[in-house]
Amino acid sequence: MDGQTPTTLYEGLVSGLAHPVIGLDHLAFIVAVGVAAAFTPRSWLSPLAFVAATVIGCLFLVGGVMLPAAEFVVSASVLVVGAAILSGRAVPASAYAALFAVAGLFHGWAYGEAIVGAEATPLLAYLAGFAVTQYLIALGVSKLVHLSVKTGTDSQPLWRQVGPRLAGAVVAGVGLAFFLEAVEGAVFA
Questions:
Q1: CA 181 to chain centre
Q2: Average pLDDT over the chain, rounded to whole?
Q3: Taking phi first (over 0 means left), then psi (-120 to 50 degrees means alpha), and beta for anything else, what does residue 69 get?
Q4: How many CB atoms lie within 10 A of CB 32?
Q5: Whole-number Cα distances in Å, 17 to 54, 61, 62, 101, 108
């Protein structure tokens, strides 16, 4: 979109479908949501908390509600969820859902920067596009984790234990890089 605000239903939809995958910090968090959700009962449910909160967060920005330190919270959320997955400890689904919802407000608020000033039709298409993209990515990742854990053989128990933790390490590393970039930007701005 070359930084232009979407003006049509098509532009809003395409922008919404693409936005979650063009920002590495957002994509890393969506992947982390999927990995974490794979280890919770009803793994399809906790990603909904994130997706719903991103829609609300986007509407906050469009409505003029400011969220403090959004870039810090976005990058810190990637780091925290990555670290939780890396730890290998069981986290209650309700705790993940709460974390996903809070983080989702800030991720959605950041998504809103691409749509501020748009008319209702492209705005609704944008919201639908990024909601669908995020949910499908999280569900897909969750399914891949389920398959990798279930298809492992007894001769490969290490992968079943280490694979998700490695994914958590990668996500935490991405979160740390973005967090340090946010700190650097604030210090040297």
A1: 18
A2: 88
A3: left
A4: 32
A5: 14, 19, 18, 20, 13
- Per the listing, tokens 């532009």 go with 11
Tens digit of pLDDT for each residue in 23-53? 888 898 999 999 999 888 888 999 999 999 9
13, 125 contact by CB (below 8 A): yes
Length of the chain, in residues? 189
Q: What percent of the chain has pLDDT over 90?
A: 58
Q: Give the list of residues 6+ apart from residue 79 with CB closer than 8 angstroms, or none.
A: 172, 175, 176, 178, 179
**Closest to 165 in 3D by CA, of 79, 84, 46, 47:** 84
66 contacts: CB under 8 Å, gap ≥ 6 = none
Whether pTM > 0.85 for this model: the answer is yes
pLDDT of 89: 85
**Cα–Cα distance for residue pair 24/28, rounded to 1 Å:** 6
What pLDDT, on a 0 to 100 scale, did the predictor assign at position 160?
Answer: 55
pLDDT band for position 161 (cuts 50, 70, 90): low
Q: Comparing C-alpha atoms, which of 116, 100, 110, 93 is closest to residue 42?
A: 93
Answer whether 86's CB lies under 8 Å from 30's CB: no
Check residue 154 and give its pLDDT. 53
